[in-house]
Every structure is written in C-alpha cells, then in structure tokens.
C-alpha cells in the first residue's frame, strides 16, 4: 500500500514517510526504523513528521515504552506502485503538475 494520490503532491520526504507508514499500517514503525526506510537525515525526517502530524495524517502512540508512528487510515490508499518499477507517463505528469 501507499499514500493516497491526494497526498502525493506534498514534499518528497513527506510522501516517502507516508508510503513507508502505509506499508506498515498494522504494526507502525519507530522513528529509527522510519529513518532507515526513508533514508533522510533526522532533522529532515523530524520536519516531515511534524508537518504530517499537524495535518492530521499520522498518529503517534506509546506502546510498551516505545514511540510508534502510524499513518491514519484516511491517508492510505489501496493502490500499489507499478510492479515493473516504471511510473505511468500520465500518472507522473499528474503528480508533477497538479491541475
């Protein structure tokens, strides 16, 4: 799974975070695991998480002494990226130039 199309016009790091969280919708992830999945420095990741939290797209909980981050259900889509690793031409145009 990945973030819904309506949330894909955000900052690249925010979209990567939402996609990573969507892939772990049931279990959530820690900040450290998320950092490995998104491959951004901690400051950039912190800014993205703050923005996503402010916009109500993620939820942060405390579980067993660990801080877990989840994407909220309304931010997760059912679509998956193309299997061949190529993005559909028109999808890419829509993503880059929202009308």
Radius of gyration, rounded? Answer: 14 Å
How many individual helices?
4
Helix proportion range = 40-55%
Order of helices and strands: EHHHEEEH
How is the biggest beta sheet arranged? 2 strands, antiparallel
- Separation, N- and C-terminal Cα atoms: 25 Å
TL;DR of this structure?
The chain has 99 residues and is of the alpha+beta class. It has helices at 12-23, 31-38, 42-54, 89-96; strands at 2-3, 58-63, 66-71, 76-77.
Describe the secondary structure blueprint for this structure.
Elements lengths: L1 E2 L8 H12 L7 H8 L3 H13 L3 E6 L2 E6 L4 E2 L11 H8 L3
Antiparallel strand pairs: 1-4, 2-3
Mind explaining what this structure looks like?
With 99 residues, the protein is α+β, with helices and mostly antiparallel strands. Helices cover 41% and strands 16% of the residues. The protein contains four helices and four strands. It has helices at residues 12-23, 31-38, 42-54, 89-96, and strands at residues 2-3, 58-63, 66-71, 76-77. A two-stranded antiparallel ribbon has the order 1-4. It has a two-stranded antiparallel sheet with strand order 2-3. A hairpin with a 2-residue loop joins strand 2 (58-63) and strand 3. The chain is globular, with a radius of gyration of 14 Å. 24% of the residues are buried.
């Amino acid at each position: 799974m990945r973030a819904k199309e309506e949330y894909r016009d955000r900052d690249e790091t925010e979209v990567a975070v939402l996609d990573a969280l969507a892939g772990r919708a049931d279990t959530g992830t820690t900040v450290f695991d998320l950092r490995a999945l998104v491959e951004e420095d901690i400051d950039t990741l912190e800014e993205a998480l703050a923005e996503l939290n402010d916009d109500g797209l993620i939820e942060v909980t405390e579980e067993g002494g660990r801080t877990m981050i989840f994407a909220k259900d309304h931010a997760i889509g059912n679509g998956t990226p193309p299997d061949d690793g190529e993005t559909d031409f028109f999808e890419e145009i829509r993503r880059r130039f929202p009308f």
